[in-house]
Amino acid sequence: MKKFKALALSAAIGCSAFAAQSALAGFLDFALVDDTGVFQNPVVTAPGIPPATIVNDFAFNGGLDTRSTLFWGEPSNLSGLNPGLEQSNLDLVSHKSVSIDTLGDPYELSILTHNNNVVSITAATLGTAQILGALSVSSSMGVLGDIFLKTPGGDVPLGLLSAGLVLDPDVPDDIVPPADYATTIISLFDIGFTETPNFVPCDPPNPFGSTCDDFFSLMTDGGFPLHFDVYIDDKLHDLFIYSSFDADGSTIETGPLYYTPEVAATDLYTFARLTLIPEPSSIGMMLAGLLGAVGGLAVRRGKKQ
Known about the structure:
The chain is mainly β. It contains two helices and 16 strands. Residues 1-19 form the signal peptide. It comes from Zooshikella ganghwensis.
């Protein structure tokens, strides 16, 4: 049931500084902001050799996606498990445009893959990095109104949130024009990586029971997953952005730690799901109908006694 129309936890098309608008038609349309959906600022462990490298392909999959790959480590085949002598890497494929045209269904935004290959324990490995993303939000099926991020401390206007994130030194000042702050979801994910030695005893936890699974953390200042209140034609909707190990988005993964056995790969999908929030009057009518049905059932039962 994968609703696949392309994008990542970053999106924009349809505003002057963004790529040309594609033919979208949804309750919510997302587009990947230029030069986002990418890794940045990698830091490796001592002695720092070899350094981490980032390869970006902004025309991946025929131009439908952006692909960013972060490589690190000195490939090793001492165990006989890495005959291709490939570096370990994190690979992010972000779809450039996505339309949510069915309420309640998950729509894939991106796929993050950890390819865990055997690397030398004497060389530098990945320590930390970031993922920078930005999604431009519009609507083809109504008038898009205010958007608010839901937090434990209350609702935060998206425009205020975006303006604050642009002040972060790791977010480019010109990522989007100020006029587009209120319709752009900017994200900055911090990655913390642990490359474990491939011999026992391993530092716990080790959820797969294999020899010293490597793992990484994926976190934002505001936490993840995210809920937004979105008004379309003055009707309140919930926009839920979350991650899943399942390609159909059927489960929700809260992280923040993600493990991969040696010589294996882990796919982490990001989805968006939009649902209509019933108005209080509608909820009251539903409750009244339910109570009426229960009352009628009680009367019928009483007549049979």
